Each structure stands twice: as C-alpha cells, then as structure tokens.
Amino acid sequence: MPTVLRIGAYRFFFFASDKNEPSHIHVERDENMAKFWIDPVRLESSGGFSRHEIARIQIIILEHQKHLQEAWYGYFNN
Fold first, then answer.
1. CA-CA distance, 42 to 58, in Å (whole number)?
2. Fewer CB within 10 Å, N- or C-terminus of the chain?
3. Rounded Cα distance, 46 and 49, in Å
4. In the chain, where do the E strands start and end?
5. What pLDDT band is residue 65 in, cutting at 50, 70 and 90?
6. What is the spatial distance between Cα 13 and Cα 45, in angstroms, rounded to a whole number?
7. 77: confidence class by pLDDT, cuts 50, 70, 90
8. pLDDT value of residue 78
9. Residue range 2-59, pLDDT digits in tens
C-alpha cells in the first residue's frame, strides 16, 4: 500500500492489487475512506466523509493530479 501523498490528516495511497483498474487513488482520514478516479478526477466511492470534505479532497487531488498520475504509472510500470 504505497502512500503517495500526505496533506494534513489525509493519506493518499493505492493498493498493489489495483493494477487492473483505471488509475485511481484511495484517501483515508481516521476511519473514513474514499476512492477517486484520477483522470478525469471524480469520486468513485466514499464511506464516512461529508460532502464538504469530499469537495475539499477533490480539490487536493486536482491540485496534485499530475503527481498522482505519475506515481500510479511509475508504480505499475505502465
């Protein structure tokens, strides 16, 4: 489970088993978890985050989209 980015209380990561899916990032804070597709950035699933917090996370992902995409392809050698 490589951690790609940490911003405040948020940890952005992906699972090694995610290779066969389109590029995406998992985000967790405490017991809350969400999954976002990276390109285009959009929410795939969420558990525990408020709508306001999901919007904040989406902005963070947009700001770091290039880095997240490069980390995905770098890890999975695509």
1. 7
2. C
3. 7
4. 3-7, 10-13, 24-29, 32-38, 41-47
5. very high
6. 15
7. confident
8. 59
9. 899 999 999 999 999 999 999 999 999 999 999 999 999 999 999 999 999 999 999 9
SS3 14: coil
Domain assignments of the chain as residue spans, ordered by start: 3-76
Q: Which amino acid is at 10?
A: Y
The band of 1, judged by pLDDT with boundaries at 50, 70 and 90, is confident
Sheet holding 24-29, edge to edge: 3-7, 10-13, 24-29, 32-38, 41-47
| Interatomic CA distance for residues 16 and 63, integer angstroms | 24
End-to-end CA distance of the chain: 18
User: Which residue in the block uniquely carries the two structure tokens 């695509």?
Assistant: 78
Distance of CA 34 to the CA centre of its chain: 7
Contact 61, 46 (CB under 8 A): no
